[in-house]
């Protein structure tokens, strides 16, 4: 039996994200993520204003009147949510953990996808792939995806993005729209991401928390790495230490985003202390203009 508290959280996210899809998001999603191409729909009689080049000359010659071919967009897509569930997801200093924010983001994307009759699949990974839910359509399937995002308890704590991307390539035969949701506290995934983006349309959603970029002045603190368990004591009163921390984290962030640009992977920076809808809509509109 599904715990009542989990059902309550699923319902809350469903109501919240479904409203956003209805009010704002579905049109943005549809305009950016097109289908696989154009397929033949029907032949109909020519009307003034129709494109001359659309005339079906074989039918026209046979019937004695002008007919044209109509085509429609082959809309159906497969959307893969590739989600980092490593230990660092259980971090947040502004009211929400990164893992909670991830569940809401994925719900918004999944409901937008099924609104457009697309399939949605899920890959949960740490330093290995922990769970795979094959792509399907429908609201019931999306609710299952949200339940997994909220309740799944990984067996491991580390992060191995390259492993998740290799698994994606092994289980998908056709091109997908892949949302890679992570805080990207990992290294050595660059080549795998580049390869995956050649085959799929990969969009990175990079989660950050304010305390991962700047330390507050609170005196001596014991910090623990959520993935490795390593601990250290730092004096946050030290201005030089805080400046050095900001310099290192800022440089790492710039380097990561420069790499994304170099391989044409779109990256949306999502911050736990700011509304996530604004950067999402900004990205979708930018991408629509670029198309």
Can you describe what's shown?
This protein is of the alpha/beta class and 291 residues long. 43% of the residues lie in helices and 24% in strands. The protein is built from eight helices and ten strands. It has helices at 4-32, 57-63, 98-115, 139-151, 161-171, 190-199, 239-262, 277-290, and strands at residues 37-45, 67-74, 78-84, 119-125, 129-136, 177-182, 201-208, 220-224, 231-235, 266-271. Strands 5-4-3-6-7-10 form a six-stranded mixed sheet, sandwiched between helices. Strand 4 (119-125) and strand 5 (129-136) form a beta hairpin. Helix 1 (4-32) packs across helix 3 (98-115). The longest helix has 29 residues, at 4-32. The radius of gyration is 23 Å and the shape is elongated. The mean pLDDT is 87.
Secondary structure topology:
Blueprint: H1 4-32, E1 37-45, H2 57-63, E2 67-74, E3 78-84, H3 98-115, E4 119-125, E5 129-136, H4 139-151, H5 161-171, E6 177-182, H6 190-199, E7 201-208, E8 220-224, E9 231-235, H7 239-262, E10 266-271, H8 277-290
Parallel strand pairs: 3-4, 3-6, 6-7, 7-10
Antiparallel strand pairs: 1-2, 4-5, 8-9
Helix pairs in contact: 1-3, 1-4, 1-8, 3-4, 5-6
């Amino acid at each position: 039996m599904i715990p009542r508290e989990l059902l309550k959280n699923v319902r809350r996210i469903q109501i919240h994200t479904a409203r956003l899809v209805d009010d704002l998001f579905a049109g943005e999603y549809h305009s950016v993520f097109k289908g696989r191409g154009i397929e033949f729909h029907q032949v109909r009689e020519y009307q003034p204003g129709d494109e001359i080049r659309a005339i079906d000359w074989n039918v026209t010659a046979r019937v004695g009147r002008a007919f044209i071919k109509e085509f429609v967009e082959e809309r159906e897509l497969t959307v893969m949510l590739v989600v980092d569930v490593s230990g660092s997801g259980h971090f947040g200093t502004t009211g929400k953990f990164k893992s909670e924010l991830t569940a809401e983001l994925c719900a918004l994307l999944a409901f937008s996808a099924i609104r457009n009759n697309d399939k949605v699949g899920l890959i949960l990974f740490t330093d290995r792939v922990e769970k795979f839910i094959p792509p399907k359509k429908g609201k019931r399937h999306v609710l299952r995806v949200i339940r997994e995002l909220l309740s799944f308890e990984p067996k491991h704590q580390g992060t191995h993005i390259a492993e998740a991307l290799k698994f994606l390539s092994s289980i998908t035969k056709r091109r997908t729209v892949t949302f890679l949701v992570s805080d990207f506290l990992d290294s050595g995934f660059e080549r795998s991401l580049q390869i995956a983006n050649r085959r799929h349309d990969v969009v990175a959603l990079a989660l950050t928390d304010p305390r991962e970029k700047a330390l507050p002045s609170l005196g001596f603190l014991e910090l623990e790495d959520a993935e490795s368990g390593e601990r250290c004591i730092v004096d946050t009163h030290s201005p030089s230490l805080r400046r050095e921390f900001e310099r290192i984290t800022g440089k790492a962030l710039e380097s990561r985003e420069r790499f994304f640009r170099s391989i044409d992977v779109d990256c949306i920076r999502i911050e736990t202390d700011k509304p996530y809808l604004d950067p999402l809509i900004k990205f979708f509109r930018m991408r629509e203009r670029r198309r």
